[in-house]
Amino acid sequence: MTNQFPALIIAVPLLAALATPLIGWRNSRGCYYWAVFTMALVCFFAIGLLRSVILNGPISYHQGGWAPPWGIEYYVDYLNAYMLPIIAVISLIVIIYSKHSINRELDGRQMPTYTLILLMITGLMGIVVTGDLFNVFVFLEIASLSCYGLIASGQDGAPLATFRYIIMGTIGASCYLLGVGYLYIVTGSLNLADVSQLIPPLYHSRVVLSAGVLMLVGISLKMALFPLHTWLPNAYAYAPSSVSALIAPLFTKVAAYLMIRVMFTLFRPDFFTTVIPATTIMTWLAVTAMMIGSFYAIAQNNLKKMLCYSVVAQIGYIALGIALANKAGLIGALLHILNEAFTKGCVFLVVGAIIYQTGDCTIDHFKNLFRRMPFTMGAFTIGVFSMIGIPPTCGFFSKLSLLMGCIVDRHWVFVAALLISTILNVIYFFRVIKVASFEEPEADYGRKEPYDQVRMEEVPLSMRIPIMLMAAGILLSGIFSSTIAKTILIHIIPAGF
Amino acid sequence: MLELLLSKYNYWLYVILMMIGLYAMLAKRNLVKKLIGMNIFQTAVILFYVSIGVKTGEVTVPILPYGHHHGHEQAINVAHYLNPLPHVLMLTAIVVSIATTGVALAVLILIYRRFQTLEEDEILKINQETGT
């Protein structure tokens, strides 16, 4: 049964996306239940795959029965098996949440929205599950194109931000495609495992060098690694709230997965550390991203925009962990992918809830918000704790592991950078919590009833429960982080670390 | 030097096209021109792929008269056939490129409806005036 899961995990959301217009023909609100049903199924497949990989080892699925390297192979090892449930669970939670939010923000457009959401999840799943370099490009573009459509459906500034994203995203995908072409010239193969065995003798050939660089630049663009992050803040900030809650935790992290794949599976780790000094450059870019992202986040007065810059900063953490290219660093990066997925999911859902209830998310208007939305703001506080790195949230353990990675290789500057960026995190998030809990509303702002008369105005239950689930996910992934590291992550570490 | 230019002319061509596309995307202020630049950029990659499948000399398309299961097993000399795989890959890439252009054009229509212009400078000016 499980041996068909790698194909089903793509086929089910793809066919469901194509069937969504039929479901939404008469009643476009029915699409919501259809999407929830599909994602529940995908979650089942993803968790089944993870279980099967842990019990029986990696799964290789040959599309159409054509053996690799000629046919397209779907290869699920510990790394993808770890990523698949993250994508599936986060998207299921966000889709459950999306009902009221999409009904309000995109009323009448539920059918295309859910079609695009399912298509994007298909693309993300595909990038992760496939073991074929060209297939990765196709799925990358499926995910990106549906993402463009989703973002463009947002508010006023969204189309312009989307256009910039399209230009940058296309440059990224083309660079990746060109890199694949270079590898194809020298190896004649597109299968990831096959290419990785064929290229080590050619590591000093200029074609392979440029292929490595092109792929890295292309993926960095999709991942929004500094200085290629400029498209991200506006695009994510102007997207509809459910959409940003879906893409902010997932899209950049899948790109980070792809980077780990290219750097440590496709090439041997020493290619990017010694043959070309890519990891050295990347660590510095990552540290700059952490700093610049945090500084920009402090300057924002809109919570959603602030979180978008926080995404840029957090991508810096993940990139730092990858580029350290040692055991603790990589485990830190992988844990941080999990942590970021839940944390950003949680806080973006909270932002969606605040927008749903109050109409905007300017931080100065948050006064008394803890009284009015205690559950939502409680979950937000857990998210903030995780972003800062307070135990027992997952953020603490991932940051600890990243810190260990820096210390092992004696990168004291990066240790300092990690600590400083944590302090910056405290500054910009505690401002939100301070305004929302301690400050009295001023007279000129509409709501000025006395503090003890403020009534609770929580969002509907179908929005509150997903927010609580995300918060629970943050805590659980923190508590079980050592179990996750021991059962899954330890097997991802490539030889030579 | 000249020989290097001539023998690898397909690669030079794709690099030049790619740079034209990149220049248009980064330097042009009109959004449609940016989009055209993006198209040229993608086409350059497509041309690169198509050109790597080509062989010179006595070569033909890879259509074999008999399949493997008809008792006519014979060794096939790869040098006599074009490599069809890059071309097949590019069919997919062309579809991707068309889809991207379509989405981008739709987005441009949205931008034009909102701002009544497609010049980036004017859009930024309108944005500044309205304070967003």
Structural class of chain B: mainly alpha
Topology-level CATH name of chain B: Helix Hairpins
The arrangement of helices and strands of chain A along the chain is HHEEHHHHHHHHHHHHHHHHHH
Kindly report the average pLDDT value of chain A.
87
Low-confidence stretches of chain B: none
Number of helices of chain B: 5
Radius of gyration of chain B: 22 Å
Structural class of chain A: mainly alpha
> In total, how many beta strands of chain B?
0
Helical residues, percent of chain A: over 70%
The main sheet of chain A comes to:
2 strands, antiparallel
Distance between the termini of chain B: 54 Å
What separation lies between the terminal Cα atoms of chain A? 35 Å
- Main pleated-sheet profile of chain B: none
CATH architecture annotation name of chain B: Orthogonal Bundle
Oligomeric assembly: heterodimer
| Pair with the biggest interface | A-B, 25 and 30 residues
How many helical elements of chain A? Answer: 20
Question: What percent strand of chain A?
Answer: under 5%
User: Tell me, what's the shape of chain B?
Assistant: elongated
Plain-language structure description:
The complex is a heterodimer of chains A (497) and B (132). Chain A has 497 residues and is mainly alpha-helical. Helix content of chain A is 76%, strand content 2%. Chain A contains 20 helices and two strands. The longest helix of chain A is centred in the C-terminal third of the chain and has 32 residues, at 327-358. Chain A is globular, with a radius of gyration of 22 Å. The two termini of chain A are 35 Å apart. Chain B has 132 residues and is mostly helical. Chain B has one domain (2-56, 79-130): Orthogonal Bundle (Helix Hairpins), CATH 1.10.287. Chain B has helices at 2-7, 9-27, 31-52, 85-115, 120-130. The longest helix of chain B is centred in the last third of the chain and has 31 residues, at 85-115. Chain B starts with a helix and ends with a helix. The model of chain B has no long low-confidence stretch (mean pLDDT 84). The chains are: A mainly alpha (497), B mainly alpha (132). Chains A and B meet through helix 5 and helix 6 of A and helix 3 and helix 4 of B.
